[in-house]
Design brief:
This protein has 196 residues and is α+β, with helices and mostly antiparallel strands. The chain is built from four helices and five strands, in the order H-E-H-E-E-E-E-H-H. Strand 2 and strand 3 form a beta hairpin. The protein starts with a helix and ends with a helix.
Length: 196
């Protein structure tokens, strides 16, 4: 047997393993910095009260970009405004609303959640508001169950809330010029709808 070829394979394997180990340790440290707790998955921090469920979302926004964020989310929800079952939910009757004296803006829509055969429907309000003594908008979901089993409704909302949270995280990754473009587009379209 040729022992020299065995040792060359052995030394290459050790070199590869040491390189992988050297890159895994910094990656592990970085993941702990991003999510310092042991919980690596987003958990809804509240419980429903009867048919109503208020869920705070971990997202804040500057006032000059709030319409842009809502328009961005409106475009996202419009992708699910169809009877074609291609996601975790179906959206109907999507509208923008505003309560000027309370500085509240948001989106209101009917949602149908998976599994569709369970008949889970709800009214969803994505609400952006400025808390007292703060300058930036915070977000929360206000959900009212219309039909479907309560336990299945709770379970199905985890995927729904996770999808919305994912879109808010994607917004953070947009360039400043893209965010401004969405804000201008929202102002233009909302002004046009007010003029009608």
């Amino acid at each position: 047997p040729n022992f020299a070829s065995f040792w060359s394979l052995y030394s290459v394997a050790i070199a590869i393993l040491s390189t992988l180990a050297a890159s895994l340790y910094p990656a592990l440290l970085a993941s702990r910095l991003v999510t310092p707790s042991y919980k690596r998955k987003f958990e809804i921090p509240t419980k429903p009260h009867g048919k109503n469920w208020d869920i705070p979302l971990p997202f804040v926004c500057e006032p000059e970009l709030i319409l842009g964020v809502l328009w961005y989310l409106k475009e996202y929800f419009e992708e699910f405004a169809t009877d074609i079952e291609r996601g975790d939910f179906i959206v109907k009757d999507l509208t923008f609303f505003e309560i000027k004296k309370e500085n509240i803006k948001g989106l209101r829509f009917h949602t149908r959640l998976k599994p569709y055969e369970a008949g889970i429907t709800q009214v969803t309000e994505l609400i952006a508001f400025i808390p007292p003594d703060e300058e930036r908008y915070h977000f929360r979901l206000s959900i009212t169950r219309i039909s479907g089993d309560e336990n299945q409704w709770k379970y199905s909302n985890h995927a729904f809330v996770g999808a919305i949270r994912g879109q808010l995280l994607t917004w953070r990754g947009l360039s400043p010029s893209e965010k401004i473009k969405y804000a201008k587009m929202a102002e233009k379209n909302l002004k046009r709808s007010e003029d009608k």
